[in-house]
Amino acid sequence: SYVLVQPPSLSVAPGQTAKVTCGGINIKSKEVHWYQQKAGQAPILVIYDDRDRPSGIPERFSGSSSGNTATLTISRVEAGDEAAYYCQVWDSDNDHQVFGGGTKLTVL
Amino acid sequence: HLQESGPGLVKPSETLSLTCTVSGGSMSSSRYYWAWIRQPPGKGLEWIGNIFYSGNTYYNSSLKSRVTMSVDTSKNQFSLKLNSVTAADTAVYYCARLLGLTVSDHWGQGTLVTVSS
């Protein structure tokens, strides 16, 4: 089955740029979605279809995908961005939703 | 808006049953699937399955033998049954709306289900 690999943690200073990666075989061929989950809350969608932002999500959040890696980029990081971030794809070979293990973003 | 409901405590070997009530729109739209996703304490997200308003389902193969999802469009609800539960099934269970088959654009607040005697 398809596997998505994320680094468990990432630390960034306020105002800097955070890049959260998601690795998967030929991930470029799939549509990648990203969710933000703050402590004690349900996840929310921040990027869908590799790079599209739902309404209400700041422009500081952007997505890209190339080869075997998809990336969520958070520009001008704020304290309120501290959360776990999960990537997700649909594995059409097995008709499965697949989540990455999540990356805990800490704002220093 | 989505709201999960059901028992917060289930005994080992019994059946976990949850319902998700959808408000603010009809479930009977070809635009959406509906999903159950769970999260064990301190761990990541695990997909359980998707259901269409017609009853068409997709299940996680690792849970397929124990999972049944159903939909009641007259009540705007869909449900999850997971049988033969063990402590490993202890998790926060979320219901979600999917754009198409894959994008969870709206989530319920989640409900914690603990499996313990």
Structure report:
The complex is a heterodimer of chains A (108) and B (117). With 108 residues, chain A is an all-beta fold. Chain A contains no helices and nine strands. Chain A has strands at 9-12, 18-23, 33-37, 44-47, 61-66, 69-74, 83-91, 96-99, 103-107. Chain A is globular. The relative contact order of chain A is 0.35. With 117 residues, chain B is mainly beta. Helices cover 0% and strands 52% of the residues of chain B. Chain B contains no helices and eleven strands. Chain B has strands at residues 2-5, 9-10, 16-22, 32-39, 46-51, 57-59, 67-72, 77-82, 91-99, 103-107, 111-115. In chain B, β7 (67-72) and β8 (77-82) form a beta hairpin. Chain B is globular.
* Protein chains sharing the most extensive interface: A-B, 26 and 21 residues
Extended strand count of chain B: 11
- Sheet/helix structural class of chain B: mainly beta
Which percent range fits the helix content of chain B? under 10%
Radius of gyration of chain B: 13 Å
Average pLDDT score of chain A? 97
What is the approximate shape of chain A? globular
What class would the helix/strand composition of chain A place it in? Answer: mainly beta
- Low-pLDDT residue intervals, each spanning 5 or more residues of chain A: none
Task: Tell me the β content of chain B.
Answer: over 45%
- Helix and strand pattern of chain B: EEEEEEEEEEE
Oligomer: heterodimer
Question: What percentage of residues of chain A falls in helices of 4 or more residues?
Answer: under 10%
User: What's the end-to-end separation of chain A, in Å?
Assistant: 36 Å
